[in-house]
């Protein structure tokens, strides 16, 4: 016989998985925020945007012909296998930055979203290479009125997607921030080995989750996407994240994405290799590269410096963090990088 306690627990889980408003309820509750679910090719994508009251007040006092006051949207792109919930710390501190910095008043809104099969977005059931993902993303964003003025913040594999969009449709961007981003030199045997191991681990987890044993263990490694009690992040977001973690859609989508990372990097390399002499991948798009200093390979700084050379209008910064900058002690450096990116665009 099913107990009332179990029914209540299942209802609680259902609510967290169905409604992002519950998951984000502790994140700047006084800021107007909306979750959108635009439809494209019969799939919904979850995009959650936070309004900036300072921008509204600022534009009311500006000349309509002043280009510096044109609306900007900051879009946060997570690394594999993370999604909108990973940005909770950054989202919580955005209002303070927006209200106390002149550059912040140029931002109309800031948004997080979930790629296919992650969070509250529909499961696609196949691998989606970077070029297809950014094309689809533009369709989704356009349907909710975001088609220019984007400052694209990409962390880890999210940085590959940011580079892809900047290389193929720079006109919709006002800047790019790469947070400890992957780069084309990741095309090596070590990454291939790690991907194979990752795919195997997620397939095993997907097979044994039906036993229920997975939910009695709190030791899944952070790179797998599980957020343990020790992670410094809002509790509601962690609960929601970990409920999604044990779902087949998430586990299978992670496998699909791992399987396509090498192809996405290969595509990016081909774009770089085909550039005419003297040309850069991102032209003169304002670019800030933020590099984590802890636990990195010996050549990591060199590779990140190469990334900063992808634009003729760039800045390279560092932060005392591990690769997981969004949930690390110096996550505010991401916001500082956004500020620097806006400044580059105003030169």
Automatic annotation (TrEMBL):
Residues 96-191 form the AB hydrolase-1 domain. Keywords: Signal. This is AB hydrolase-1 domain-containing protein. Pfam families: Abhydrolase_1. The keyword S-adenosyl-L-methionine does not apply. Coiled coil: none annotated. Residues 1-23 form the signal peptide. It comes from the Eukaryota. It comes from Cavenderia fasciculata (Slime mold).
């Amino acid at each position: 016989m099913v107990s009332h306690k179990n029914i209540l627990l299942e209802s609680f889980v259902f609510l967290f998985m169905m409604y992002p408003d519950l998951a984000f309820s502790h994140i700047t509750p006084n800021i107007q925020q909306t979750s959108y679910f635009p439809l494209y090719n019969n799939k919904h994508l979850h995009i959650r945007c936070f309004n900036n009251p300072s921008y509204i007040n600022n534009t009311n006092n500006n000349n309509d012909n002043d280009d510096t006051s044109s609306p900007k949207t900051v879009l946060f792109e997570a690394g594999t296998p993370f999604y909108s919930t990973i940005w909770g710390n950054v989202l919580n501190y955005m209002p303070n930055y927006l209200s106390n910095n002149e550059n912040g008043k140029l931002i109309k809104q800031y948004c997080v979203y979930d790629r296919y099969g992650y969070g509250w977005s529909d499961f696609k059931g196949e691998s989606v290479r970077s070029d297809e993902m950014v094309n689809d993303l533009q369709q989704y964003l356009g349907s909710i009125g975001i088609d220019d003025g984007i400052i694209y913040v990409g962390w880890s594999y999210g940085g590959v997607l940011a580079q892809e969009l900047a290389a193929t449709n720079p006109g919709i961007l006002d800047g790019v921030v790469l947070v400890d981003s992957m780069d084309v030199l990741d095309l090596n045997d070590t990454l291939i080995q790690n991907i194979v191991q990752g795919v195997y681990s997620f397939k095993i987890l997907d097979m044994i989750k039906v036993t229920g044993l997975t939910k009695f263990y709190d030791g899944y490694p952070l790179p797998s996407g599980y957020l343990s009690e020790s992670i410094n992040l809002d509790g509601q977001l962690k609960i929601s994240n970990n409920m999604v973690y044990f779902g087949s859609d998430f586990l299978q989508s992670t496998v699909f994405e791992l399987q396509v990372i090498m192809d996405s990097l290969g595509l990016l390399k081909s774009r770089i290799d085909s550039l005419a002499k003297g040309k850069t991948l991102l032209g003169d798009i304002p670019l800030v590269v933020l590099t984590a200093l802890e636990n990195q390979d010996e050549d990591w700084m060199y590779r990140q410096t190469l990334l900063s050379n992808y634009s003729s209008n760039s800045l390279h910064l560092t932060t005392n963090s591990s690769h997981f900058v969004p949930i690390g002690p110096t996550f505010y450096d991401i916001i500082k990088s956004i500020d620097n990116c806006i400044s580059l665009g105003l030169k």
